[in-house]
Design a protein that fits this description.
Distance between the termini: 9 Å
Largest sheet: 6 strands, antiparallel, barrel
Shape: elongated
InterPro entries: BaiN-like, BaiN-like_dom_sf, FAD/NAD-bd_sf, RsdA/BaiN/AoA(So)-like_dom, RsdA/BaiN/AoA(So)_Rossmann
Keywords: FAD, Flavoprotein, Signal
Strand content: 25-35%
Helix content: 25-40%
Protein name: HI0933 family protein
CATH class of the largest domain: Alpha Beta
Structural class: alpha+beta
CATH architecture of the largest domain: 3-Layer(bba) Sandwich
Cofactor: FAD
Number of strands: 21
Radius of gyration: 25 Å
CATH superfamily of the largest domain: FAD/NAD(P)-binding domain
CATH topology of the largest domain: FAD/NAD(P)-binding domain
Length: 406
């Protein structure tokens, strides 16, 4: 019977432990927190967007996004749904492909997965921080502050630096580097953005829907329509999280990053001018700020007018065609400089990590060290919002677990 150590009790670690134990391995799972699956519990605002029914390399970023292709094919959605049911977990499948536990509670996912792993024979050791991993001859030595044990194979499934308040750390990168692995520079992803502007902090708490265009070095890179929320530090909301991976990566590489907000995305440029003209013609006695409040939140109207150089108290009847055109243009393209992210503490996931060039994508085994495996977010793979990061965590963990038991 092969002895297997899994470092990290998150999604990929628990999945690997389950499959390794079911394949006959003697599995010990080390988790530094007082319980496993902390990020599972926190994901999806406590609901856990467990997977997406459609997933491909296009939904991921990294030096080589196609690294995920084999794993995703091995854990297709039909197979995953049956696996969940076998663990007593029923899925609620949404029209957009996102899936949640039918209970609408992330705890259901953790209970099912932890119970399945324990029933399979996985020895889960919580409050056990691994201080060192080494290899002597054909065996690995895993050390904690209280003991050391010998194993035939080791999986590093420690996750990333994102959400340190949930126990995240850079330990996995440290262990990987010790064995000669390259670490691709890491950066926060699915994270809020910091803005360099004179107005955003005055609009803190204001929420609206907009089309957000990400601009890198003067070129439009992505457009997403959705909720935005101004904050004291900058801007948040689902649309912002969706563009944040590319924005954060660009900032890491010292590129110029900005966003452009279209506050009325249903209208094209000429239609915007027409609707503003029509609105102003309908309320000739209103001041321009009062009139604009019919199109957008009041605070946004206040600072949009400031950027347009138009007094809030100006009568709409006093505006000339040039001013109306300028204001309409600003409604459709209100630009803000991005000068940072809200950091790893507030990020859902991290980009960068252990270079996938040194990992066998069909086994998750190191190409440098026999018996050493990697899975999940510790690798240089990051997915979009929508269950994709869990998708890769489950898939890579399953493959690693099966392979380690051979």
């Amino acid at each position: 019977m092969k002895t297997v150590a899994i470092i990290g009790g998150g999604a990929s670690g628990l999945m690997a432990g389950l499959f390794a134990a079911r394949a006959g391995a003697n599995v010990t799972l080390y988790e530094q927190n007082n319980g496993v699956g902390k990020k599972i519990l926190a994901s999806g605002n406590g609901r856990c967007n467990i997977i997406n029914t459609t997933s491909s390399a296009d939904d991921f970023a990294g030096t080589d996004p196609h690294f995920v292709t084999y794993a995703l094919k091995q854990l297709n959605f039909t197979y995953f749904e049956k696996l969940c049911l076998s663990m007593g977990l029923v899925l609620d499948i949404k029209e957009d492909g996102r899936c949640y536990p039918l209970s609408n509670e992330a705890k259901s996912v953790l209970i099912a997965l932890k119970s399945a792993a324990s029933d399979a024979g996985v020895h889960i050791r919580t409050d056990n921080s691994v201080s060192d991993i080494s290899k002597k001859d054909a065996q690995f030595i895993v050390e904690t502050p209280t003991d050391k044990k010998y194993f035939d194979a080791v999986l590093i499934a420690t996750g990333s630096e994102a959400a340190p308040q949930l126990g995240a750390s850079a330990d996995g990168y440290r262990f990987a580097e010790k064995f000669g692995h390259e670490i691709v520079p890491t950066y926060p992803s699915l994270v809020q953005l910091h803005l360099n502007s004179k107005h955003h902090h005055k609009m803190a708490g204001v929420k609206t829907t907009a089309e957000v265009t990400l601009i890198i070095d003067g070129k439009s890179k992505e457009k997403i329509q959705g909720d935005i929320l101004f904050a004291a530090y900058g801007i948040s909301g689902l649309a912002i999280l969706d563009i944040s991976q590319k924005a954060s990566y660009a900032l890491l590489n010292k590129q110029r990053v900005s966003i452009s907000l279209n506050l009325l995305p249903r209208y094209d440029r000429q239609s915007l001018i027409n609707i503003v003209e029509k609105l102003f013609a309908s309320v000739p006695k209103h001041d321009v700020h009062t009139a604009l409040c019919g199109l957008m939140p009041a605070k946004i109207a206040t600072y949009l007018l400031d950027d347009a150089g138009i007094a809030l108290s100006a009568p709409v009847s006093a505006l000339n065609p040039k001013e109306i055109k300028k204001l309409s243009h600003l409604i459709g393209e209100w630009k803000f400089e991005v000068n940072g992210t809200h950091g790893f503490k507030h990020a859902e996931v991290s980009g960068g990590g252990v270079s996938t060039a040194q990992i066998n994508n069909k086994t998750m085994e190191s190409k440098l060290v026999e018996g050493l495996y990697f899975a999940g977010e510790v690798l240089d793979i990051v997915g979009k919002r929508g269950g994709y990061n869990f998708n890769f965590a489950w898939a890579s963990g399953m493959i690693a677990g099966k392979e380690m038991a051979k």
